[in-house]
Structure to design on (679 residues):
């Protein structure tokens, strides 16, 4: 998977290149709009990450040029989260946006979603190690034993399982499970994770839910 | 562009001049009319008197012939260059004629009494005539006066009046101007005083006591405005200061911790810890900036809310689910007693209530209930969040909803909202045209959202 990052801020460009590279993507970086345009014309990319404020050709102009002939998904980054800016980007054909400062986990999640292509497959049964979740029957078992979860605990576990291996930020979890689309400055998510762990992880030797300090939580089998 | 001058003193002077012209004009017109009527009346009386004398002369004389022989009798009497006299017999024969202007003998209708009329001849004249019987024949006595002299006199008088009027207007303008300049001096002084007030001197006020009464109200209004401006300005600068201070704390943590770690080689774990700790501070900063931006946007005058009907009970239920875990950890019970529907922006309302709930959970005494209740009161809907716990000291209550205000500055909790949570609540309520209120005593603390009802 090839990703083009068009970003004039050197540090941002650098950590995006490193981070996405570590996640297994091939990353090209352009430090201004014209270089970006040049790269787009020369080779093919699966995703373009575009900063809006660029010297020379700005993000909006570049986006218009891209959309004239390409359907490559575009994720734009902006420091201004005025509603008009977001609407403008989406109207010009961008697929998603992130407002700076964004969390890296958030960016990675968006990138994965955009690269997944097509609607996500509706999975009804999840299985990680000896943890199983049956969406239709609303049943969770660990090592064959039935675990009773509240509605929100179930929703939380479902979210973690459906994004297995991805680090989910607290804000993202709050918005997905409780529809809280703002930072409420509380440790609600940590408390919920703690209670979920008490039911599905604590009694068992193999832990599945892991805290990634400074980023969020991930569900996966770790060696 | 208007011809009407911009200067108030000039305007007033022009108005003075206008008033002067109107008054002088009206008086002049009245005087002129009276004079004209008076002169006409006197002339008429003179003509009638002359006719009377002629008749007496005729009666005294033996015959008209004798009268004709002694013209000095009436010539003396007439004397003037503009007097006319005819005695005409019924047969049309002119018996006596004094006619310096050489007018034609006027043809006049015969009547029993004395008659008066203006003659429209080559030269305008006023005529009086009388028909008498003398020595068995009818005679018409005609006395007249040329009007030329009179019109000349009146014309001269008119000219004088016009000149007086013009002079009066100019004088009224100049005097009016001087008076206005003098009278508007307090305004100029007020302006000079107001000019001295700038950002550095916002504490200055306009002198209200020494002012003329018309300006006193203006000064008072301006002073009130200045007071509000000064308050707003002070709040703004205090806010910038607070903001800088609030950012300084996480930044100094970041710098200190990082520098301390970089002084010596450390284990990977140490570095990881440093980065994770830094990340927490960054998030705190990012949250603060988000909240600041939110406040700045909601406080813009053109900010608007998308109102829709919100089911209060349902919304609070959602929030209770969200805070359930936190409440249980502190052995608190969330009690939802909210009901009814409300016209509000659901996202903003949820955010306001979430902030109130987070605040209540933070300060509630362990093991006590935290309740959310709504009630109709005085035409408004009150949504209150109540918790038991140590009462907030009275001096903190009025400032509780200010940005960065903390009752105990030393007790900034790591998970707290950076002192902006309640400020956000207040600005959300301002957006909805409502307000916030707080009550705190031994029975607990209640923070309330007050929504006015009956408005779109």
């Amino acid at each position: 998977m090839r990703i083009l990052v068009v970003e004039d801020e050197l540090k941002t460009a650098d950590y995006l290149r490193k981070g996405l590279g570590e996640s297994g993507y091939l990353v090209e970086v352009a430090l201004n709009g014209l270089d970006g345009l040049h790269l787009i014309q020369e080779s093919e990319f699966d995703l373009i990450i575009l900063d809006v404020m660029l010297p020379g050709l700005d993000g909006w102009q570049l986006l218009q040029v891209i959309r004239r002939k390409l359907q490559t998904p575009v994720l734009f980054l902006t420091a201004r989260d005025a509603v008009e800016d977001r609407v403008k980007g989406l109207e010009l054909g961008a697929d998603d946006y992130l407002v700076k400062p964004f969390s890296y986990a958030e960016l990675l999640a968006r990138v994965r979603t955009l690269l997944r292509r097509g609607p996500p497959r509706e999975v009804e049964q999840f299985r990680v190690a000896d943890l199983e979740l049956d969406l239709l029957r609303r049943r969770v078992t660990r090592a064959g034993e039935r675990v009773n979860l509240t509605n929100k605990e179930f929703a939380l576990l479902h979210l973690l399982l459906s994004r297995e291996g991805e680090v989910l930020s607290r804000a993202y979890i709050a918005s997905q499970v409780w529809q809280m689309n703002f930072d409420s400055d509380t440790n609600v998510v940590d408390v919920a994770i703690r209670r979920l762990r008490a039911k599905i992880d604590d009694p068992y030797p193999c832990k599945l839910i892991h805290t990634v300090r400074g980023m969020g939580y991930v569900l996966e089998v770790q060696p | 562009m208007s011809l009407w001058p911009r200067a108030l003193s000039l305007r007033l002077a022009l108005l003075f001049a206008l008033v002067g012209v109107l008054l002088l004009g009206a008086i002049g017109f009245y005087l002129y009319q009276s004079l004209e009527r008076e002169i006409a009346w006197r002339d008429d009386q003179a003509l009638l008197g002359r006719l009377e004398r002629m008749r007496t002369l005729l009666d005294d004389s033996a015959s008209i012939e004798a009268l004709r022989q002694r013209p000095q009798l009436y010539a003396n009497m007439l004397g003037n260059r503009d007097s006319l006299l005819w005695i005409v017999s019924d047969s049309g024969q002119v018996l006596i004629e004094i006619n310096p202007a050489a007018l034609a003998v006027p043809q006049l209708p015969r009547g029993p009494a004395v008659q008066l009329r203006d003659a429209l001849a080559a030269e305008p004249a006023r005529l009086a005539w009388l028909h008498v019987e003398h020595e068995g024949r009818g005679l018409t006595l005609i006395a007249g006066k040329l009007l030329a002299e009179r019109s000349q006199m009146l014309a001269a008088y008119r000219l004088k009046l016009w000149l007086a009027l013009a002079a009066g207007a100019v004088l009224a303008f100049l005097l009016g101007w001087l008076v206005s300049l003098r009278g508007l001096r307090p305004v100029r002084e007020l302006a000079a005083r107001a000019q001295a007030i700038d950002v550095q001197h916002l504490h200055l006020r306009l002198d209200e006591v020494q002012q003329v009464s018309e300006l006193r109200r203006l000064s008072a209004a301006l002073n009130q405005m200045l007071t509000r401006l000064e308050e707003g300005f002070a709040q703004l600068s205090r806010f910038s200061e607070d903001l800088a201070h609030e950012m300084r704390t996480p930044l100094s943590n970041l710098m200190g911790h990082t520098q301390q770690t970089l002084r010596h080689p450390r284990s990977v774990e140490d570095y990881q810890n440093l980065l994770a700790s830094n990340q927490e501070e960054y998030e705190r900063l990012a949250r603060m900036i988000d909240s600041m931006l939110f406040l700045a946007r909601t406080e813009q005058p053109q900010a608007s809310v998308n109102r829709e009907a919100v089911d209060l009970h349902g919304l609070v239920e959602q929030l209770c689910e969200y805070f359930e875990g936190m409440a249980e950890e502190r052995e608190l019970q969330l009690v939802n007693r909210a009901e009814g529907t409300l016209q509000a922006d659901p996202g903003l309302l949820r955010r306001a209530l979430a902030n109130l709930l987070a605040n209540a959970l933070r300060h509630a005494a362990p093991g006590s209930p935290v309740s959310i209740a709504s009630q109709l009161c005085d035409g408004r809907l009150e949504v209150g969040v109540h918790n038991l716990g140590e009462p907030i000291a009275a001096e903190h209550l009025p400032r509780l909803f200010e940005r960065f205000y903390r009752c105990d500055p030393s007790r900034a909790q790591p998970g707290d909202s950076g002192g902006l949570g309640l400020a956000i609540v207040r600005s959300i309520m301002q957006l909805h045209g409502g307000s916030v209120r707080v009550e705190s005593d031994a029975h607990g603390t209640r923070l309330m959202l007050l929504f006015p009802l009956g408005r779109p």
